[in-house]
Amino acid sequence: MRIFSGIQPTGQKHLGNYIGAIRQYVEGQDKGDPAIYCVVDLHAITVPYDPQRLRSNVYDTAAILIAAGLDPSRCILFRQSDVREHTELTWLLSSVTAHGDLNRMTQFKDKSAKQRELVSAGLYFYPVLMAADILAYRADMVPVGDDQRQHLELARDVAERFNERFGEVLTVPDFTIPEVGARIMDLQDPTSKMSTTAASDAGVVRVLDPPRTIEKRVKSAVTDSGAEVRRAPDKPGVTNLIEILSVVRGSTPEEVEAEFDGQGYGTFKGAVAEAVVEYLAPVRERYEALRGDEAKLEQTLLDGAERARTIAAEVLADVRDAMGVGPAA
Ligand code: ATP
Ligand code: LTN
Predict the structure, then answer these.
(1) Structural domain range at position 87
(2) Ligand 1 nearest atom to the CA of residue 183, by list position
(3) 6 in contact with ligand 2, CB cutoff 6 A
(4) What is the mean pLDDT of residues 98-119?
(5) Considering the domain boundaries, does residue 190 fall inside one?
(6) pLDDT per residue over 44-65, tens digit each?
């Protein structure tokens, strides 16, 4: 089974990214044949960005992934822009992508509403590049958080339409969204997902935050009326904390509810804070060591790109041939 996923380059990866996605990448690395993980710098340029920071953000993200447990000798870890097949396939796939489908993408609507200046055509095309990332490797399985569901449905539609029109060339990918923790919510506004672009930092726990910050943010998380530690639709704050604790402890939400039955929110939040601090501490420590050696990170990414390119180039040759683009194979 071939696994593929992508992650945006920021040094600000948060607990939602970690629980919803990075955790799955690490679990998948020995199941994938191979497992391929890509730092998507070309997706990052679809909104305003600083060219200097983009490069260093790629290293930050690669270091976080390795610190989290990805082993570049057991998976392929690379930078998207190093494998040019992604951009070529984006254009080729644009001929089987429905304009109307792109118009329906909720992430485009949300992100374009936030832009104060230019809404780039790249932002609109973002899902096509994402489909190309996946389809260039004939990935069977794509681990993502819940917010990527619509993009994955589009990638499946694009692959299906391509195959109908040009023959069975591409693999229609499945995706996995974790049962618990697929949508970690902002600690101050538990009706919105925890996000890099949150209006305020107070509700966001970052993987690299110092323990004191994590503790403070979790302990001041918004809880709901009542005093019971149990999940309910009208208790989004407590539900979120229960999910977080169950994931970081490797137990079930039911076990967490049973353990804290009858105890107040204060005790419960203290336990969540402590568990999250313990969960992230080793990642932060390994990160510090890895991030210092930028030359090594660069080499790791280049090696990964070389291996990725071998796979993608073969798929691209098949795609071009099926589409009648370029000389006959
Ligand atoms: P953000 O909104 O924080 O910028 P993103 O989805 O735009 O995140 P990435 O960093 O590329 O950008 O996301 C990496 C992975 O993290 C994706 O698979 C995404 O589904 C997942 N993810 C993002 N936010 C959350 C969240 N709050 N809970 C669970 N998973 C999440
Ligand atoms: N859009 C994704 C990142 C991403 C991705 C991918 C995820 C880019 N290409 C391919 C899975 C497969 C996001 O999380 N923001």
Answers:
(1) 3-182+294-323
(2) 28
(3) yes
(4) 95
(5) no
(6) 999 999 999 999 999 999 999 9
Residue 154, ligand 2, Cβ within 6 A? no
Residues 276 and 304 in one domain: no
Among the residue ranges 35-49, 142-156, 221-235, 305-319, the one predicted with the least confidence is 221-235
Distance linking the first and last C-alpha atoms of the chain: 27
State the closest ligand 2 atom to the C-alpha of 151, by its place in the atom list counted from 1.
1
Supply the CATH number for residue 265's domain. Answer: 1.10.240.10
Residue found by looking up tokens 């709901």 in the block: 224
Binding site membership of 29 for ligand 2 (Cβ less than 6 Å): no
CA 329 to ligand 1 centroid distance, Å: 40
Question: 0.85 cut: is pTM over it?
Answer: yes
Q: What is the DSSP string of 90-155?
A: HHHHHTTS-HHHHHT-HHHHHHHHH-SS---HHHHHHHHHHHHHHHTTT-SEEE--GGGHHHHHHH
Q: Clarify whether residues 146 and 237 are in a common domain.
A: no
Cα(123) to centroid(ligand 2), Å? 13
* Domain tally, the chain: 2
Residue 22: other Cβ atoms inside 10 A: 27
Structure tokens at 255: 């076990």
Nearest Cα residue to atom 14 of ligand 2: 7
88 and 43 in a single domain? The answer is yes
Q: How crowded is residue 284: how many other Cβ atoms within 10 Å of its Cβ?
A: 18
Q: How far is the CA of 194 from the centre of ligand 2 (A)?
A: 16
Cα 77 to Cα 2, 9, 36, 45, 187: the distances in Å are 14, 13, 6, 20, 31
Q: Identify whether 34 is preceded by a cis peptide bond (ω within 30 of 0).
A: yes
- C-alpha angle with apex 4: 115 to 327, nearest 5 degrees? 90
Tokens found for residue 42 = 């070309």
Q: Is the CB of 130 within 6 Å of ligand 2?
A: yes
21/135 same-domain check: yes
Q: How far is the CA of 263 from the centre of ligand 2 (A)?
A: 40
Rounded to the nearest whole angstrom, what is the distance from the C-alpha of residue 324 to the centroid of ligand 1?
Answer: 37
